[in-house]
Amino acid sequence: MLAKLFPREQADTVYDIDLDRLWNAGIRGIITDLDNTLVGAGVALATPELHDWLARVSQQGFKLVIVSNNHHARVSSFAEPLKLPFIWRAKKPTMAAFKRALAMMELGPQQAAMVGDQLLTDVFGGNRIGLYTILVKPIAIDEEGFFTRINRRIEKKVRRMANKR
Fold it and tell me: Residue 47's closest CA among 78, 26, 25?
């Protein structure tokens, strides 16, 4: 079970992910978290750098869906100006939203990557369904909500346990 909490890959930011390598490995879709993965939790709209990255993702032929545990107003106000499909109140790490995102992209789990900043929601949920998981460092932890702060404490304990093994 502990293995499901660890990503296949880690990157500092989404901009550091090797999109060519993913494409060559057969990945055709990216499921991504929103808050502290694409932008800080308190940032309303995409940054110019994120616009450029999303354009590269699209130009390379990847499909992309935002899957967030956040509420509809937050996710839609971010995703709709970008014309990106999204799933809000995803209840990650449950598998339903991941299955829905795969159906939206018309892909199987082996053809998609999950990119997120949390082990307990993004990585664990993605690993459970068989996605290629990529953990990025959170952008702005000072803007995180109550439950995310609890998750971060649990993540520290999990990492300590793994280091002892």
Answer: 78
Check if the beta carbon of residue 133 is closer than 8 Å to that of residue 30. no
The per-residue pLDDT string of the chain (165 residues; one tens digit each, 9 = 90 and over) reads 578 888 999 999 999 999 999 999 999 999 999 999 999 988 999 999 999 999 999 999 999 999 999 999 999 999 999 999 999 999 999 999 999 999 999 999 999 999 999 999 999 999 999 999 999 999 976 666 666 767 667 666 766 665 555
Helices and strands (H, E) in the chain, number of each type = 6, 6
User: With contact defined as beta carbons under 8 Å apart, do 87 and 101 qualify?
Assistant: yes
The amino acid that residue 85 corresponds to is: P
Q: Per DSSP, which regions of 112-159 are E strands?
A: 112-116, 132-136
**pTM: predicted TM-score of the whole model, two decimal places:** 0.88
